[in-house]
């Protein structure tokens, strides 16, 4: 068990992460100001920081220090934020609200929003190039994995399939492929990067991969449930979008109850993967997984 | 002097580069097919391959082999192509033609074009992660430089300033800053990567940097002259765009004759920077610089 409450732990880790992001991003008044303002606007728009928090907790689970995982955690958060900016564009999901604020193209115009996404993606690689090598992992491993997870068969591939799946019925395996690419891949990388920063053994890294895959699927199922059941105000983004664009989602395919039980099942599989870690070391990841399962926004 | 004609040399190097690009990019029938088709459509749309050819020639100037520079040369070409796809979007320069073919968003729609650009940018880093370390340079140096040159103060910064400069009069130093970011930065990186793959000395790398900077400025001045003087058919992209969007360019600021003399002057400065290389070693770069100065499209 952890002495510090989960809320306090998350608050503390988020403060570390925000300070690191602030340090790693170009200053708002650096020229050209527009692009740096737009990059910071989306990064500091009040996201949950789920991926970097998981990255830090994974480092601790492997016996490392959270502070040593900050650089890869920030690279992952930058890649995540770029993908949100581009996904929200009119040519994609066409969303006006994100994290309760106007989306980047609403605030800055489409041209700047596209470039702000490009710049955060590029900056993610500038940041990952600053990672320290450990005995087992070098900067080359990090760059290769970040590029693969963000690439055309995973993060971008998921978004393409999602776009193509609008107004057409996908099968369950096809929906799972979308979820894997859109969500599970980068979430898994966040966990693996935390492990790598702590010089994790191969079996620890495998456990984190298994945990991340299942947690990522659970997370996206819950996201799609909330899109159907929660209010726009609570979500901080437009609710009911999936129905309106006739997206094939897990709850659309198997119903709300089926989707809820799928999310529970995946979370359990995620928790099972953690059993190779000593109890006190896995406690935070267990808490975080349960917290994500029970979230309401 | 070089025994092989420049045209034969360029043809031979382009064949090497195209084969490497084909090997490094995901296959067209790999899932999701749409994104891989779109990535390959723009990469193989008949570009001049100026940057990768310069990369290979720089490796040879430093006593290395062209073949050892192929990986970074392809990474640079992918980054260049991504920037063209995004620059052509309706929210940016809104161009329908590129290299004589419909632009990516005309061929695939805006959503896919944005993602194809994202995917090529990400793939550039996947490719640069495959570079061989030399005695003086490691993969970390390459990633750091590629991210910096593609980032918010250079490639993307140039495009932002260019966007903001439409319908408003920029000063000569401001126009130079746009040229540096939009063109000179990535061209310089192409040359430096060639040098790095040949384990160049510090002074060789400085000479290539100086050469690239001046050649890049000359190249962009000529581009803007051709936009005014050449036909759409010859250019393979819409001519007269800069006047229509009231862009501040070098010829708009100092006239066609002034711009022509600026391009010559910059080319001479570029050639001067090569003097540290033995004559037979610098001959190709000299020929390429003169070729770029005298081009008509």
Automatic annotation (TrEMBL), chains A, B:
CDD domains: Trans_IPPS_HT
Membership in a protein family: Belongs to the FPP/GGPP synthase family.
Domain of life of the native organism: Bacteria
InterPro entries, sorted: Isoprenoid_synthase_dom_sf, Polyprenyl_synt, Polyprenyl_synt_CS, Prenyl_diphosphate_synthase
Protein name: Polyprenyl synthetase family protein
Species name: Akkermansia muciniphila
Keyword field: Isoprene biosynthesis, Magnesium, Metal-binding, Transferase
A Pfam family it matches: polyprenyl_synt
Gene Ontology cellular component annotations, sorted alphabetically: cytoplasm
């Amino acid at each position: 068990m952890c002495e510090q409450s989960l809320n306090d732990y998350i608050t503390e880790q988020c403060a570390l992460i925000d300070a690191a992001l602030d340090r790693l991003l170009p200053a708002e008044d650096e020229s050209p100001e527009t692009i740096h303002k737009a990059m910071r606007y989306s990064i500091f728009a009040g996201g949950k920081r789920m991926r970097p928090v998981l990255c830090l907790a994974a480092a601790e689970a492997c016996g490392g220090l959270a502070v040593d995982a900050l650089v890869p955690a920030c690279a992952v958060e930058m890649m995540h934020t770029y993908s949100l900016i581009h996904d929200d564009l009119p040519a994609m999901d066409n969303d006006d609200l994100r994290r309760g604020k106007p989306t980047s193209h609403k605030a800055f115009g489409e041209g700047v929003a596209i470039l702000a996404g490009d710049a955060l993606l590029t900056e993610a690689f500038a940041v990952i190039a600053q990672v320290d090598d450990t005995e087992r992992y070098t900067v080359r491993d990090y760059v290769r994995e970040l590029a693969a997870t963000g690439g055309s068969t995973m993060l971008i591939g998921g978004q393409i399939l999602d776009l193509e799946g609008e107004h057409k019925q996908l099968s369950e395996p096809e929906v799972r492929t979308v979820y894997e690419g859109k969500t599970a891949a980068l979430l898994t990388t966040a966990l693996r990067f935390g492990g790598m920063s702590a010089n994790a053994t191969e079996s620890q890294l495998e456990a984190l991969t298994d945990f991340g895959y299942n947690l990522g699927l659970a997370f996206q199922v819950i996201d799609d449930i909330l899109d159907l059941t929660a209010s726009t105000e609570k979500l901080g983004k437009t609710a009911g979008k999936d129905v309106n664009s006739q997206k094939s989602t897990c709850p659309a395919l198997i119903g709300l109850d089926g989707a809820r039980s799928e999310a529970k099942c995946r979370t359990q599989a995620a928790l099972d993967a953690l059993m190779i870690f000593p109890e006190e070391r896995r406690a935070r990841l267990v808490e975080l997984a349960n917290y994500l399962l029970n979230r309401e926004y």
